[in-house]
Write a structure and sequence with these properties.
Elements lengths: L12 E7 L7 H10 L3 E8 L3 H7 L9 H8 L4 E8 L2 H9 L4 H7 L4 H5 L8 E3 L3 H11 L12 H25 L4 H11 L13 H4 L1
Antiparallel strand pairs: 1-3, 1-4, 2-3
Subcellular location: Cytoplasm, Cytoskeleton, Flagellum axoneme
GO molecular function, one term: hydrolase activity
Protein name: Nucleoside diphosphate kinase homolog 5
Length: 212
Amino acid sequence: MQMLMPEPQIFVERTLALIKPDVIDEEEKIVDLILRSGFLIIQKRKLQLSPEQCSNFYAEQYGKMFFPNLTAYMSSGPLVAMVLARNHAVSYWKQLLGPSDSVRARRTHPNSLRAIYGTDDLRNAFHGSLSISSAEREIRFMFPEVILEPIPAGQRARDYLNLNVKPTLLAGLTALCKEKPADPMTWLADWLIEHNPNKPKLQHQITEEEHQ
């Protein structure tokens, strides 16, 4: 029986995912589902936010009627914060979550995470970033030590691949075809490591004492 393997992905987008306090006991099942859905978990931590920290995190919601209940709910116990990565991570995570109102999610998206684990519009079990820019802000909030490098998108991403990735990969595949090794995957991996154009170059200066 032939196994169907997913096509390799270049993880060019990240999003923040929160498992909220009322479903923290389901963390193991939820993490397994996230991984099986094609996400890579780059960062993960368990923490408990104070009401003030919750207010800062949800600052865009300040002034709305549900805001006090939201901050009270989010600070009521520990939560799990994760940085998820995959192609179109923001939109795929939102799709996996379903509508923000868990009652509505059970009607329209019964297989979504909020339909399965959520209770209502407030206690909806999960958080997901709304956009790439909000994901960057929220990731910095939950993981202040993480370094977020600018991620090229659109034409910039294509230019980067054409300039920095494809030439090296093409040269490696050409060498692989000529060499015809018994273990092509390992051979190509070793070749790419050896010919990595971004590999640091150390210049060794020969002193006069070493010459003698």
